[in-house]
Amino acid sequence: MEKMGVPCVPMATQAFKDLAKSNAGKRGMPHARIVFTPHPVWGKTPEQLMVYVEGNDPVTGKPMIKEIVDDLTTPVAEEDKKSGMADVSVGPPVFGPETADNLQKYFLDNGMTDFLPIILPTEEKVNAMLQGTSHHPDEVVGKMAAGAFAPWTFTVKQVAVNAVMAGCEPDYFPVLLAIASSGMAALGSSTTSFAYSAVINGPIRDKLNMNYGLGALSPFAQSNATIGRSWTLMGKNLTPGGVPGDTYQGGQGNNLDYNNLVIAEDEKNSPWTPLHVQLGFKPEENVVSLFGGPDVRQGHGAKGAGVAENAMFDEQISYMFHSMVGDGALVICDPLVAKHLVEQGYDTKEKLSDWLWKNTVRTAKEFRESFLAYVHLYPLALQGREPYAAWYKLADDTLVPFFPRVSDINFVVCGGQANAFFQVANMRHGRSASIDKWM
Amino acid sequence: MKMNRRDLLSLLGVSPALLATPPAHAQQTKTAHAAAPSTEQKFEALNPKGTPPPVRLVPMAPRLDTLSGKTIYLVDTGFMGGGTFLQQMQIWFGKNMPDVTTVFRKKAGAYPEEDPALWKEIKEKGNAAIMAIGH
Question: Are A96 and B22 spatial neighbours (Cβ–Cβ below 8 Å)?
């Protein structure tokens, strides 16, 4: 609005004070006239909100309406009329020389770690990491940002620094470059405390000794652990993200953020087509597919999926979908689960996704009253985006699928076949990237 | 246009301590170590940070001389409670500043997206805007 010559007062709740001011600065208006309300406004009655309107801005202590009127009528200071560009530094290219302990503390104190000890990224170790790719160290890999912040760019070498810090081996490096090239950050900014998952397919899983068997999702393989950790460090260091109160607002946070949900799909023991082939890649290609969403929950049993006499799987998973706030599902099946489902007729992942999509439904009224719809999907309906625009025109009792597209329900297979368990990540597929491109 | 680098770093959420070489605390430790003989090996470590884009300063729009007789758009930019809050503000203006016309709108599109049609309407029909995000 200001760019168009229209004076504007942005408003946010007090909880977003630092974020709002910081983001205004990053977008070139460091003295934007922002007015704050008490926090939260969500769940308050109109009468309670009128008290807010008639009360004070909790940040400045000034009467809110008077502050708004002043902000719209007080002439702009000369320094706020200026235009132009200003470079921003993030410090020197090298820290030290210092002792290892002091450098560890320096990285920790300056928010460059996940608060676990790191491998110090010396020139020697970074150069060794760079041997894991044929790409030039100065090649720009891409841009990355968490949330709506202006993205940062980064080079192959800058990714290598973070890979060293996480404890990665040079052989893992093409996977990290593929993840980085996607532009998808592993630290979101949402109050929903999003988590992220990287599904890795192709022969590279065995080359890197990735664990897709017993304890596949637990800390039993260096590659699984450090690839995920590196993604989080990239989110902190290669983007403006990961600063609590500023670019990170996850209310409770998410333990998965430490090293994310890294899944090497068990292509050998799965009776189904691997995920990357479903997405159009060749079986021999190495691919990483990235997902994001709020949480993961566990289900027991593999029987059912539409079989009336033993409907454990479908009942559980349908129940899980109904309690999800995100807009996609990544179902992680132990091979035992997948094999049972094949015996019951679901010989492809697509058949199972289709069954779940058609049979996990809610009324249009329930959809419209859901958190996700109110916050994120109604504004899309206003733009005419389907299926949401159509769903807002339906009668209250019309049944609609829980997720907008059948492709929002994905399956991967891993696990040690110790029992027929599955997990459902409330995560939607974001992007897939070729690992081979970065070898 | 020169800007204070320390201020800009703060706005970017980056510690201004990053500007110091060697780090401030390391210097203190170094001083402490200097008093006692030490053979501990020292290293250099590479900065893991990416490259932020330059900040393009945006001039603020000229302000109004008064709100009387003007039209102010109240724009709900998304999230919970913001719309209800602005509707209360609209009631307040109606009662207390009746010579100000207020128009309530909900922005279309995902929360970080622009709404060009609404911006055009405000530019053509409005004099100012108050934009609120809920939570």
Answer: yes
What is the sign of the dihedral through the CA atoms of A63, A68, A71 and A74? negative
- Pair A433, A202: CB distance under 8 Å: no
What residues of B are in contact with residue A12 (Cβ under 8 Å)? Answer: 132-133, 135
In b/e form, how buried is each residue of A72-85, taking b as 16+ CB within 10 angstroms? beeebeeebeeeee
Q: B46 to chain A: which residues are within 8 Å by CB?
A: 93-95, 121-123, 126, 157, 161
CA atoms within 13 Å, Cβ hemisphere of B82: 26
Q: Quick check: A249 pLDDT over 90?
A: no
- DSSP letters for B2-24: ---HHHHHHHTT--GGGGSSS-H
Task: Establish how many alpha carbons lie within 13 A of residue B64's alpha carbon, considering only the half-sphere containing its beta carbon.
Answer: 21
Q: Token match 């890979």: residue?
A: A163
| Spatial distance between the Cα atoms of A158 and A186, rounded to a whole number of angstroms | 16
- Confidence tier at A86 by pLDDT (50, 70, 90): confident
The tokens of A145 are what?
Answer: 């940002």
User: Which residue from A96, A162, A191 is facing B44, i.e. has the nearest CB?
Assistant: A96
Taking the model in full, what pTM does it have?
Answer: 0.84
Whether B123 and A4 lie within 8 Å, measured CB to CB: yes
Segments making up each domain of chain A, as ranges: 2-81, 100-360+402-438
B109 phi-psi bin (left φ>0, alpha ψ -120 to 50, beta other): left
pLDDT in tens, A357-410: 988 889 999 999 887 787 788 888 988 999 999 999 999 999 999 888 999 999
Asked whether A427 and A329 are in contact (CB, 8 A), the reply is yes
Q: Cβ(A200)–Cβ(A265) under 8 Å? A: yes
Phi, psi of A193, rounded to the nearest 5 degrees = 60, 55
DSSP bridge pairs for A298: A423
B65-105 tens-digit pLDDT: 999 999 999 999 988 889 999 999 999 999 999 999 999 99
The residue length of chain A stands at 439
The Cα A172–Cα A170 span in angstroms is 5
Which residues of chain A neighbour B65 with C-beta distances below 8 Å? 73
The CA-atom distances, in angstroms, between A382 and each of A243, A256, A386, B108, B109 are 33, 34, 10, 5, 7
CB atoms within 10 A of CB A369: 12
Mean pLDDT of A58-63: 97
Secondary structure of residue A384 in the 3-state scheme: coil
- Inter-axis angle of helices B82-96 and A46-54, to 10 degrees? 60
Predicted ipTM beyond 0.85: yes
What does the block give as tokens for A116?
Answer: 């676990």
A4 vs B contacts (CB less than 8 Å): 61, 119, 122-123
Nearest CB partner across the interface for A86, out of B21, B44, B55: B55
How far, CA to CA in Å, does A255 sit from each of A199, A258, A290, A338?
18, 6, 18, 27
